[in-house]
Amino acid sequence: MKQSTLPFRRRILALLAVVLAFVMLAPASPGAANPTDEKETVDERVDELQREHEGLSEELARVVAEMEDAESQMPDAEDAVDAATDELDEAKRKDEELGARLTSAENAEKELREEIDSGTDRIEESEKAVVGVARKAYQNSGVTSDVAMLLQMTESDNGLDGLTRVDSAVRGQQRTITRLGERRSANINNQDRLDAVSEEISDLKDEAAEVVLEKEAAEKAASDAKDALDTLVSQKDSAAKTIEENQVETAEELERQKEEQERLADEIREWQEDNGDGNRSLPGEGFLKNPAPEYPITSPFGWRVHPIAGVRRLHSGTDFGTPCGVDVYAAADGVVVSSGSAGGYGNRVVISHGKSNGSSIATTYNHNTRNLVTAGQSVSEGDAVAKAGTTGSSTGCHLHFEVMQDGEYVDPMDWIS
Predict the structure, then answer these.
(1) Nearest Cα to 126, choosing from 176, 75, 62, 73?
(2) In the beta sheet, which residues pair with residue 348?
(3) H helix intervals, 140-158
(4) Residue 339 — pLDDT band, cuts 50, 70, 90?
(5) Which of 19, 47, 174, 225 has the fewest Cβ atoms within 10 angstroms?
(6) Residue 362, pLDDT score
């Protein structure tokens, strides 16, 4: 009987292990310290968000990362709650079932004890009757006084009636002895049944004690799983509220940046038109050289949805993971259109390279610590034009490199050989 609870106990222990691991991974609160592995995941996502969205503060990037982390954990948390609830329901069912079986066995035990006590009383009465008959028979040399009297009656005129009474007395004594044997057999049988029921009750109590522990474990697992889920929901809701509070301001800032992009693009177009750009062309096959050849791309060109404002925004260039202070090189021969501070772009250098396949080409180098060239200066491919930095709307050292074709932002990697 005890073996039947082992699989269920194993499920409870396994569920507790899963819930415990999940609770340990789940953050205690949006601002609380996280386990190392989860913190590393969030930190990596913060860095990624800041690379994808220039100017996104670390604080808001972390809010987004923590909300995403909470959302990613919620399905597992919900499954853990469902599993824990199912195990708790099963533990309660087993507890109720064992309680009913134990009550039934205890009632059966009580009835058997009462039946044995009653049978014992009847056996004692029968034994007294038999002992009395035996004693009288012994005292009268094997014939009881009743039988002797009845024998005397047979010698009378009414002898037939006397014989009938003798026969009746003997039969009555025989029935008493027979009932005594039956009652003893019944009591022995009841005692065997009582022993079996008592053993069953002992086993049921042991099993019930185990199930109580399992139910308590299941209750704790269900409570822990629910707490973990509630924590994630609270974290997600708090992050969503912070994002909502910053949406308008962020959207306005993005709009200002977009206007700045368009203004700078217009300036480049006008400069190229006013300065006879058509008289020059890109050397070689019309490709550009990598301005930061030793460093990896950290964020590519393209459209993406801003995590705070929720609007599509063009990442107008390619970011290279350059440390602050390293040289940034001209991608081709050309003339410096402008060199100076440009709002969110920080320290910015713009170079016009002339025509390529009929299109005017210009490149920009942004967020520099320091510009090394001035407007109107001619540069050659590979010349150092700036020191990489993190000025303007930037969250870390890098080069934001742009290519403009006829005044429109295009993917720089399509032009780099």
Answers:
(1) 176
(2) 340
(3) 145-154
(4) very high
(5) 174
(6) 93
Which amino acid is residue 341, in one-letter code?
S
Taking the C-alpha atoms of residue 163 and residue 150, their distance in angstroms, rounded to an integer, is 7
One-letter amino acid for residue 47 of the chain: D
What is the phi/psi pair of residue 33, to 5°? -70, 140
Q: Assess contact for 284 and 377: CB atoms under 8 A.
A: no
* Confidence at 25, pLDDT banded by 50, 70, 90: very low
Question: ∠ at Cα 24 (20, 25), nearest 5°?
Answer: 120
Query: What φ, ψ does residue 143 adopt, rounded to 5°?
Result: -120, 125
pLDDT tens sequence across 352-391 = 998 888 888 999 999 999 999 999 999 999 999 999 999 9
Rounded CA gap, 180 and 187, in Å? 11
Alpha-carbon dihedral of residues 324, 314, 311, 388, nearest 10 degrees?
10
| Whole-number pLDDT of residue 32 | 40
Q: Which residues of 123-153 are buried (b: 16+ CB within 10 A; e: fewer)?
A: beebeebeeebeebbeeeeeebebbeebeeb
Q: Is the full-model pTM beyond 0.85? A: no
Q: Tokens at residue 73, please?
A: 């954990």
Place of tokens 């306005």: 252
Q: Cβ neighbours of residue 192 under 8 Å, at least 6 residues apart? A: none
Bridge partners of 360, per DSSP, are 355
- Calculate the alpha carbon distances from 108 to 98, 190, 200, 207, 397 in Å: 15, 11, 11, 19, 83
Please, which contacts does 172-175 make with residues 24 or more away whose CB atoms are closer than 8 Å?
Answer: 173/130, 173/133
- For the residues 161-181, what does the mean pLDDT come to? 65
First to last CA, the chain: 77
Q: Higher confidence at residue 127 or residue 240?
A: 240
| Torsion angle of the four alpha carbons 279, 381, 319, 346, in this order, in degrees rounded to the nearest 10 | -70
Nearest to 250 by CA among 20, 411, 73, 54: 54
Please, is 345 exposed, middle or buried when counting C-beta atoms within 10 Å of its C-beta (0-12, 13-18, 19+)? buried
pLDDT tens digits for 343-352? 889 999 999 9
Helices 145-154, 159-274: axis angle to 10 degrees equals 140
At residue 27, the pLDDT reads 46
